[in-house]
Amino acid sequence: MYDSMNDSNSVDPGLPDVDLTELRSLLRQQAQLPQLYENIAILGCGYVGSALADFWQTQGHFVTGTTTRPERVALLSRLLSQVVVMTGDDAHGLTSLCKGQNTVVVSVSPSGSRLASESDYATTYLSTARNMVEALRHAPDVQQVVYLSSCSVYGDRQGSWVDESTPLDPVDRRGQVIHQAEQIISLANSPTRKVCILRLGGIYGRGRELVRMLGGLAGTSLPGKGDRIVNWIHLDDIVGAIEFARLSQLEGIYNLVDDSQMSIKEQAELICCNYGLPNVQWDGGHPIQRRPSVRISNHKIKATGYNLTHPQLLV
Length: 315
What we know:
It is built from ten helices and 13 strands. The chain is an alpha/beta fold. It has one domain: NAD(P)-binding Rossmann-like Domain (Rossmann fold, 3-Layer(aba) Sandwich). Strand 4 (103-106), helix 5 (118-136) and strand 5 (144-150) form a beta-alpha-beta unit.
């Protein structure tokens, strides 16, 4: 999975590719709830958090967001009512952040997450989850928590289907840490507070278009058959699903991926065809380093009434 919650992303968060008017109207229809202005906190305003902040700010909510980098405060001030510089292992800071909030979103990942060490993962995810649970004990106004997790917790299923009830089998310590963090944050669920965990597929959208991530494969020869299934979700649908969770007061775990269920070979062919690029050649006679391949069901979140904005890959 491409880890896309890191606030070190270079994409300008002032230019989200979310159709705010259309998305707002669609979500209201799906949730069938009136407009409610809230105090909302977003822990981690990176690629996803920044787009989410911009969406909520335009609706009149008072949105407080965090970053670990002081140099991003000026930029984020364009999207947020208030910007706080802090990390998830700051227990006192989290307690202060949560007080007076109605909704809290946790969207964190280690800096440079694809290269981050196992200890960095533990510090980021486990410390944040533990401190957040403690902070919420002192924040009675918080009615909804949305925690962004990863479909990497399913591990390698060799192309088989999984859903939220499937026993987990992470392929490495990082996946195990993410699962442990899910278990910890779930402790914050109560009769008066709903905790919704969204397991995200690979994230793409403006500034992270698929052609930028997969187009470099064009004209190359790669080992294997290209049959590994890679699950994606568009930034619009992450924002949309989080807002739907807030409006509908969702609780529990939900996979958030689109309907495409395509192999990496099919995805590369789609991009090459669409942009007039030379096809990728696959050599099944050469051994490859196996990477996770899994078909992830999104039936559960769709059963709640959420309709995907981009059910198929947007290339």
